[in-house]
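Hi support team,

I've been running sequence recovery on a batch of backbones for a student project. Most finish fine, but this one hangs at about 90% for roughly twenty minutes before it completes. I'm not sure whether the input is malformed or the queue is just slow. I've pasted the C-alpha cells below so you can try to reproduce it. Let me know if you need the job ID as well.

Thanks,
M.K.
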C-alpha cells in the first residue's frame, strides 16, 4: 500500500476522532470508525513503510489523541454541550387547587359537560356531573374528583 493511502487513513481516522470528541460527543459510532481507520493506517505503515515509520506514526497519533482528549474533555469545553440550567417551572395541580369547594365563578364557555370557568381572575377547565350549562351562567364548585374541578349551576 502506498504512503498516500496510509496518510489518508490516518488523516480520516484523526478527523473522525476529532468529530467524536469535540463536535458530536457520545455518538460512539463515529469514534469507533475513527479508531478503526487510525489503527488500519498504523498497521499498514508498519507493514509497508517499516518499523521506524510505524513507530513515528504511532507515537505522533498517541500524542495527538492524548492532546485531543485533554482539550475536548476540559470542563470549559463540556459546558458548551452540557445542560447547566435548572427548570424551576411547575404545573398547577388541581388536587391541591386554589379553587376550593363552594367558590362561585362565571362560565366563559358552555359546559357540555366540560368547559372553561372564570373564578375571580383565574381561568380553569371544569366539568359538570353531566348537565349542560350555558355560557355566562354562575356556577359553584362542588368538589375536586380525579384531578377535575366539578361544578354545578347556581340556581
Amino acid at each position: 500500500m502506498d504512503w498516500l493511502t496510509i496518510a489518508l487513513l490516518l488523516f480520516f481516522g484523526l478527523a473522525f476522532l476529532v468529530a467524536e470528541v469535540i463536535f458530536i460527543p457520545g455518538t460512539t459510532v463515529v469514534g469507533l470508525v475513527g479508531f478503526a481507520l487510525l489503527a488500519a493506517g498504523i498497521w499498514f505503515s508498519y507493514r509497508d513503510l517499516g518499523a521506524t515509520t510505524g513507530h513515528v506514526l504511532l507515537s505522533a497519533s498517541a500524542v495527538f489523541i492524548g492532546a485531543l482528549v485533554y482539550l475536548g474533555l476540559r470542563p470549559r469545553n463540556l459546558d458548551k454541550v452540557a445542560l447547566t440550567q435548572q427548570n424551576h417551572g411547575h404545573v398547577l395541580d388541581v388536587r391541591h387547587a386554589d379553587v376550593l369547594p363552594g367558590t362561585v365563578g362565571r362560565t366563559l364557555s358552555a359546559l357540555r359537560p366540560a368547559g372553561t370557568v372564570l373564578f375571580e381572575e383565574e381561568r380553569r377547565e371544569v366539568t359538570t356531573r353531566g348537565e349542560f350549562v350555558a355560557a355566562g351562567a354562575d356556577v359553584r364548585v362542588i368538589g375536586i374528583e380525579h384531578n377535575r374541578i366539578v361544578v354545578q349551576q347556581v340556581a
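--
Follow-up from support: It reproduced on our side and the slowdown came from queue contention, not your input. Strands lie at 104-107, 114-119, 122-127, 138-145, 148-153. No action needed from you.
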